[in-house]
Amino acid sequence: MLALCALGPTLSGCSRVDVNSPQIRGIAYVRVDDVVRHDPMYSQLSRIDDAIAMVDLAGSGPRVPHSAAQIALEDARIRAEVAAARARTQQIVTAKQREYAAREQAAVAAALAAAGVRNASNVAAAMGHASLQQQGVAVQQAGRDYAAFQQSVVTQSNGAVRGIVQQLQQEANQKLQAKAMQEEQRETNLSLQLSQQDATKRLSIQTKLSMLALDAATRRQLQAQLADMLRRENAVLSAQRAADRREFAAYRATVMAQTNEQMQAQLSRIRTETQATLAARRNEVGAQLRGLAAPASVPHLSPATQAQIRSIAQQFQQQYQSDIEGVLSQYAQTGYALEAQYATLHGADAAASGATAQEVAVLQQRRQTLYNQILDQVEREAQRLAKEKGFRVVFSNVTAAPGGYDMTNDLIHDIESEHE
Amino acid sequence: MKKHLIPLLVVGVALLTAAAPAATGRDLTDIGYIDQSAIAALPAYTNVSRQLAAYKAQLDRQYAAAIRNAHTNQQRQQIGAQFGQRFNDEQRTLAGPSFMRAQLAIASVASTRGLSVVVDKRIIIYGGQDITRDVVRLLQGSQSILPLGTAPPPSEVGFVDQSALANSPQVKAASAQMAAYAERERQFYGQQFTRAGSDAAKQQQIAAAYNKAMSDEQNQVLKPVVDHAQAVTAQIAQRKGLLLIIDHADILFGGTDITTDVQNALNK
After folding, report:
1. How far apart are CA A17 and CA B263, in angstroms?
2. What is the pTM of this model?
């Protein structure tokens, strides 16, 4: 027996510590995290850790928050696409200008030739050049104005989207937080109720256990009774926690579904309003372009030929405007879709990651509550041991200890034997 | 007099306090502790907390606007550091005088009670002298508290600034390795998790495997570095005749600071 005791303080019960030795001087310490791992409730703590990992991994799916590098990459892609769409539109507009100018010039040349004008092609070219220049300047200016207007409308729209997403997300978070607190309270009350139910019996057993003259068999029996009591309490609490977890998951799903629905409705409304505003401006620009002056008139032509040329110019301008409006409309759609992607990248996705963070926060709160319960138990046991062995001070979680007495293994032994 | 920072619980504010000279062989009954939440609940300190919270809310809004334009992790880190610095500066300006008074009150009570070291209540499981009430009473009074004319008595409890040790090349390298591993594993298990669909049992298995992988890697990469730092700390403590070393955040008065010795030894 003496030889066994000499093996060290890990064998609790037989360890006789000289608390006044120069290396200890009445001071002990506990590596609390190591003791916590041996507590019977540690498995519940691990389950919460797994649940936190599940939320985290679930968040790494489609609604994973982008990393800064991913956002930068996406950002660059979207900006490049917007620039490409703008350049493409400009090319198409220029090409169409040339195409319609050539067709108009050919039609005017034919009309002039029919009216007996000499060098009809050159005259038509001169008339067309003036018309083309005038039109080109007007279209370019209109395009610039429209792009600036579109940018301003989309910026406003994105701001509104962000505001709504944040507000709805905040409301959802508040609901979830309230629910979590309600469940937390219910579990605390239950825990209290359970411990109160057995308080007298537990105290009686603990008093008996503190008697030194107790024989080993009776001590084991009493310890088993205590452990059984704890097991029953834990089982009831675990069942309640599991039920609460299920209830919370269902509630969360409902809240998130409602939030998403509200979000989609609001986003759709904003999008429709934005598109309507852009369409109205597009029509306005179109009307302005349609009102552009006819090609320069030639004084020596007969009124009938001049009327015919004006009619040709008007006809081609109308066709050109109609064609160009389609191109501008397509550009507006592309630009809007890309701007919307941009807004999603910076706004909505952040809100989604906020929901994950909220869920993790709720679980971490539960973890903390449980950890504190375990800690209380460990500390009570450590206080009992310290008193029994005659220490003056017991520290927890020291950084390093060249001296003092490490009570960790004694505590682990006690906790394990209590729950065997 | 050498000074170091001590965080108080509620506002986590830095407090200047004095380090002790080298230890001699005194008995360890002279260990006191304080429940810092009792001090933080005093009106002078709750006012500071409120002002700091208002400043932080304002700073948070500015931070949110600034971070929106950050496209790389480096930019984000820079912005984070800038705002952190601004908060720390304001914290020192607002909280410095109140916490200096707290430090003087702790030193005064410790001196009266003959304590060589005062620590935070959270690290004391058993024993020690609770001086919370005395300190609170002194702080509630309107009289000025004079600094001690003498240094705290020698103590056999030492402390080390673990946040300073975290800047050692070994810890930094291990932390970076761990962060890279965590990112890879999160993606890998995240894909598995998505493939598991709505199979809750499978999802739980994947989550448990993910946690285990992280824990194993921590044991392989971080633990040896931490163990080495602890061993070096223990050696230095022993050389200086110290029995226990705690984190400097838990020391409120007295104690022997061995941070520089440990840093030098780790950087060798």
Report:
1. 34
2. 0.54
